[in-house]
Please model this.
Amino acid sequence: MPRLLQRALYTLPVIWLVVSLVFLLIHFVPGDPVAQMLGEGAPQADIAATRHAFGLDAPLGEQYVHYWKGVLHGDLGRSLRYGDSVTRLLTNRYPYTVQLTLAALFVAILISIPAGVHSAQRRNHWEDRAISVISLFGLSFPGFALGPVLILLFAIKLGWLPVSGAGSFANLVLPAITMGGALAAILTRMVRTSMLEELSQDYIRTARAKGLPERTVVYRHALRNAMNPILTVVGLQFGALLAGAVVTEKIFSWPGIGRLTVDAISNRDYFLVQGCILTLGLTYVGVNLLTDVLYSVANPRIRQ
Model:
């Protein structure tokens, strides 16, 4: 428990840095969002009044303090484009992004663990080489290219799955495969490497000498001890999944934060962009803290 509390305290300066960078980077972007919202021919008086209404005419330091007060109270401002609360917009979209990210993570784990374990067990055999080639192909094929290919094949040509949208399991399949494919390739190679190291340990030879079934030796003993580096990669790659959601959600018209972020950037919606990036950043910080907790679950020796 003290270790977990210590890790939680370590995240506080990271959260401060994330909030500060999000605020500053958005304000350094050139262009006037109010002028774009009102149109090029808008009178200067209307532009000045709108800037004052949104607090954009205040000094940068005052805006920073006001923004922090809003973050602490759950108030991220109002969208310049939609005229609605940023917090409400994010609350409506966030579950879709979480659902898609977890589905992609499930696809990656479902593929990578059996493939990586089998590759380690069949080291230097043709199965091992085939899995390595497929993994390399997965790493080389980006999501923005895989998504349209899956749409053309499974949605348009075969008609098995819908092209876009959300609301059903069928809508989730193609985006999850698109996002989880690259992660599956990375995890497969990581699982193989970790399992090769564990399978050569003395305790594995002892377990086999006792007559334990090979499946028990591999999955209950070796895989559990090999999970720590795998969890590290999963925690780090979760941020890549969130970043990939920006492109994937746009391709499949998935109503998540990624698609909302692209639209907000296109419209120069400062407050909405801040809210989207802040939500994704804090989610990544939370996932890394959860990864530390899972370390202790996967390997009890760490709790000592």
The radius of gyration is 24 Å. The chain has a mean pLDDT of 80. Residues 86-121 form the longest helix (36 residues). The CA atoms of residues 45 and 162 lie 48 Å apart.
